[in-house]
Amino acid sequence: MGKMGIRFTVLSSGSTGNATVIAYEDIKLMIDAGFSARRIDELLSEREVAGGELNGILVTHEHSDHIKGLGAVARKYNLPVYANELTWAAMEKHIGAIPDENRRVFGTGETKDFGSLRVESFPVSHDAAEPVGYCFYDGKEKLSVVTDLGYASDRVMQAISGSDVLVLEANHDVEMLRMGRYPWNIKRRILGDMGHLSNEAAGEVMSLLMNGRVKRTYLAHLSREHNMLDLAKMSVREAMEDRGCFFKDSEFKLCETYYDRPTPWDKVGDL
């Protein structure tokens, strides 16, 4: 892809599986591998990426919709896997053997350089061992990816501030969830501080970032049971406007992710 700045595609995102590819110069990293290895190959192929081109997989946490194909993909393409120690301990029995040389520890709050691409890990609030989000910098541009969080803590806000583009969870509509068929204990988990971010909460996060440089936000990890794309975009926008954030589409865009197909390649620095 050449020296074209940070590019990315959300291969697929939702309650049934998640994976994203970040590309910069000759580096390609995948965040999570929440589908079968076969499905991941299909999604990569749709964006003209071969599994063997990847330089590693960054793991956010050990839930199955983020690691389902992790072990198989890592072994098939001999890829390094990056996760913090507690996530490694929680997921090892689910992903199978990973060679020692590919078992990389990426501590929460640390930064690692992949060529000229700097990656920062930061903690999020979710019911997993030690869940994280990731920020990507090239010295000029910043992309942040944060899903699976019950609320946006001060640490999360600090990490994602100054982003040019953000991939942010908008998991559910609160009323759809409350009226849905899930047992109350599951609803309580999703609604809690260790659960998932609602549409309105995502809008609140965005309202706090709009004084920065953010150009686009991709709404991710939408529940197929308790959300809809159009509803998520409308609700996030309304929540932002309720907090005094009014914008033109030429200035800022709310973008979609999909549970069944990749987003187009996006260059972070583009308007």
Automatic annotation (TrEMBL):
<dbReference type="InterPro" id="IPR052533">
    <property type="entry name" value="WalJ/YycJ-like"/>
</dbReference>
<feature type="domain" description="Metallo-beta-lactamase">
    <location>
        <begin position="16"/>
        <end position="194"/>
    </location>
</feature>
<comment type="function">
    <text>Counteracts the endogenous Pycsar antiviral defense system. Phosphodiesterase that enables metal-dependent hydrolysis of host cyclic nucleotide Pycsar defense signals such as cCMP and cUMP.</text>
</comment>
<dbReference type="InterPro" id="IPR001279">
    <property type="entry name" value="Metallo-B-lactamas"/>
</dbReference>
<dbReference type="GO" id="GO:0016787">
    <property type="term" value="F:hydrolase activity"/>
</dbReference>
<keyword id="KW-0378">Hydrolase</keyword>
<dbReference type="InterPro" id="IPR036866">
    <property type="entry name" value="RibonucZ/Hydroxyglut_hydro"/>
</dbReference>
<protein>
    <submittedName>
        <fullName>MBL fold hydrolase</fullName>
    </submittedName>
</protein>
<dbReference type="Pfam" id="PF12706">
    <property type="entry name" value="Lactamase_B_2"/>
</dbReference>
